[in-house]
Design goal:
With 339 residues, the protein is α/β, with parallel strands linked by helices. It has 7 helices and 19 strands. The protein binds zinc ion (2 copies).
Length: 339
């Protein structure tokens, strides 16, 4: 596709502040506040407050405004999935990443060479965002959160089925379901609705505003309500969603003999499920598992792959075995909380 003489590392490279695109004059998902940032999605380890200017999808900007008190000091430029814009000398497009509402891959083109910064992504269907779009490119930058061959996420419907069966088996008990507030929460609600669960779903206070934001963006969550506003409600047989940390918290004491479930890609790891206190671990992930990562390398067909955040070494090794030139790109400031 591009001239072989152009070294991609000459125009996009890691710095202590984050991945910097020199001819564009911007950072992608920088770890600190910068003059100009392109943001792939709203999770806290990618979207940080305080940038002078930020470019992202309209949904991601809405999420950032909700989290960062309206972001009045940031010049916001929204770019829909189908649009292209020029920043400095670089053409920028945002392609769907299938990770959460508004999530995007940054497709950067300069002098005929194309680099795709995929941010976080997954390949299986998610009713809260459009599917990942494989974009042919010269360099593909991929995450590696679940980049070990042991990670095969089971079907979402099967995991939701476990929760619904537990409710049938224990109709007197409250099911407390630990979910990450942005993305996982709303996806789990949609999965429950798709499985035919049409009762009210109760929300911990920390989940309410992002659920509202999703609803404002056309994601139908059905009957949801804050648990704090419930009067004369025993929560017997009910589903209450909360951040995973709230399960062990004082907050959970008001519920009837609660059964704790946690939804995360990490729930496939027994030690992590124990650590989270999950009696019912549900493997529902917003990140690609090993087969999805491997398939994606084939789908984008990039001769070069740079691997960031997670288990870099295994994916680098695997990519090389597919004949791809691969290396780890060490970027700081990423966390795995949104597994
Ligand atoms: Zn994320
Ligand atoms: Zn991330």
């Amino acid at each position: 596709m591009a001239t072989d003489s152009l070294n991609p590392r000459s125009w996009l490279y890691p710095t202590p502040r984050g991945l910097y695109c020199e001819p564009g004059g911007f950072y992608v998902d920088p770890a600190v506040a910068v003059d100009r940032a392109v943001i792939t999605h709203g999770h806290g380890d990618h979207a940080r407050p305080g940038h002078r200017a930020a470019l992202a999808t309209p949904e991601t900007l809405a999420i950032m405004r909700a989290r960062f008190e309206g972001m009045p000091d940031t010049a916001q430029q929204s770019l829909k999935y189908s649009e292209t814009v020029r920043l400095g000398e670089v053409e920028v497009r945002l392609a769907p990443a299938g990770h959460i509402l508004g999530s995007a891959q940054a497709v950067l083109t300069w002098r005929g060479q194309r680099i795709v910064v995929s941010g976080d992504f997954k390949r299986r269907p998610d009713p809260t965002c459009p599917p990942f779009e494989p974009v042919p490119c010269d360099v593909f930058i991929t995450e590696a959160t679940f980049a070990l061959p042991v990670f095969h996420h089971p079907s979402d419907a099967g995991e939701i089925g476990k929760l619904l069966r537990s409710i049938t088996t224990f109709p007197e008990r409250t099911h407390l379901v630990g979910v990450y507030a942005l993305g996982k929460c709303q996806r789990v609600i949609r999965l429950l609705r798709a499985a035919g669960y049409d009762k009210r779903i109760w929300l911990h206070g920390a989940l309410v505003s992002l659920c509202r934001l999703y609803q404002e963006h056309g994601i139908d969550l059905g009957d949801v309500a804050p648990a704090s506003e419930a009067i004369l409600e025993t929560f017997r047989g009910a589903i209450v969603l909360c951040p995973p940390g709230a399960i062990a918290d004082r907050w959970s004491r008001r519920f009837a003999e609660p059964i704790s479930a946690v939804c995360s890609g990490w729930m496939g790891v027994r030690a992590r499920a124990r650590q989270r206190g999950a009696e019912l671990p549900l493997v529902i992930s917003d990140h690609a598992d090993w087969p999805e990562l491997s398939q994606t390398l084939k789908d984008v067909g990039a001769p070069k792959v740079w691997v960031t955040h997670g288990r870099e070494e295994a994916l680098v090794f695997h990519a090389r075995s597919l004949g791809i030139e691969a290396e780890a790109l060490h970027l700081g400031g990423r966390d795995e909380e949104d597994g």
